[in-house]
Design goal:
Layout (H helix, E strand, L loop, with lengths): L2 H15 L2 H8 L3 H15 L4 E3 L4 E3 L1 H25 L7 E7 L1 H17 L3 E7 L13 E5 L8 E4 L6 E5 L1 H6 L16 E2 L8 E6 L2 E6 L5 E2 L2 H9 L5 E4 H10 L3 E3 L10 E5 L7 H19 L1
Parallel strand pairs: 3-4, 3-5, 8-11
Antiparallel strand pairs: 1-2, 5-14, 6-14, 7-12, 7-13, 9-10
């Protein structure tokens, strides 16, 4: 991409991230180089695009109008460039993927296999709790539980079902009554989980067609699975996890699983993306590998 287009991409990155430093990291350049690029663009336009203070960066009125006008145009340019690249026999370029932490773990083996097969490809895998608009934030694909995939996206199941696991430490189990149904759970000992949107997660159970939702009421509220796991291992109470996050602890006896018959498998993660008329060769190759991998799991 030439210097002019890079300058426009830089404006969108800063507007999206609200920070020169974060935008520079996304673009793979130094903050100083990014500042100079924006200064040159502002000088050529004769207007200030960003209001800057020592603590914040925000779009000026002119900058806001500029971003609204160039974003659709740049999207079309990207499509045209992807179309041109698709004529290459060998996939090349960059794919940006946004995923939850668990989704990132799920897709990493595919990413590594893809990079081994296509040495000219690069992948930027970003994991975060919040559910982002992958188009607005410049990602090619996303990975989330099937239930969280936006309806306007094309979704490809990665094939592996997921389960939740309710666990407690051996010390906690030794000192308390073991719940046999969700109604038996001591809610004051159930660690609360805050979702990326700020809402508190409701524990969902299912058995023989009966669905039960439980509101944890423990004294500890967390928003990170790694910290929650450490708290449960320390005997702080009962935790509700994606099974793969605590499978090794269960196998080693560090955690004891509860209510296993109330946590059946659920649809797993999906790879999703917007409809593309002319996908790049790298994009198409990655989807082909994902489909083949999901098919093997489904028939295995």
């Amino acid at each position: 991409m030439d210097a002019g287009l890079k300058g426009l991409e830089a404006v969108l990155a800063i507007a999206r991230r609200g920070s020169f430093r974060a935008a520079a990291l996304d673009l793979g350049m130094s903050t100083t180089a990014l500042s100079h690029a924006i200064a040159r663009l502002e000088a050529s336009l004769g207007v200030r695009l960003f209001n800057r203070t020592t603590r914040s960066v925000s779009l000026s009125d002119a900058g806001r109008d500029f971003v609204e006008r160039i974003a659709p145009a740049l999207a079309e340019i990207r499509v045209a460039m992807d179309s041109a690249r698709s004529q290459r026999e060998t996939p090349t370029g960059l794919l940006r993927i946004n995923a939850s932490v668990q989704g990132g773990r799920e897709i990493t083996p595919l990413v590594l296999a893809f990079l081994r097969r296509y040495p000219e490809m690069h992948i930027d895998l970003v994991t975060e709790g919040r559910l982002v608009d992958i188009v607005a934030e410049g990602f090619d694909m996303g990975v989330r539980p099937a239930s969280l995939v936006p309806r306007d996206m094309i979704a490809l199941s990665l094939g592996k079902p997921q389960r939740h696991a309710v666990v407690a430490s051996p010390a906690w189990v030794a000192a308390h009554f073991i719940p046999l149904t969700p109604a038996d759970l001591p809610l004051h000992d159930c660690i609360r989980v805050r979702l990326p949107n700020g809402a508190l997660f409701r524990w969902q159970f299912e058995k023989d067609g009966e669905v039960v939702q439980v509101d944890a009421k423990g004294r500890l509220t967390l928003d990170e699975a790694v910290i929650a796991r450490a708290a449960v291992l320390d005997g702080a109470g009962i935790g509700f996890f994606i099974e793969q996050d605590v499978a090794e602890d269960i196998s080693a006896g560090r955690l004891i699983r509860l209510l296993e018959d109330w946590t059946p498998p659920r649809p797993g993660f999906s790879l999703y993306y917007p409809g593309r008329r002319n996908p790049s060769a790298g994009f198409a190759a990655f989807l082909a590998m994902a489909r083949n991998g999901a098919a093997r799991i489904g028939t295995g």
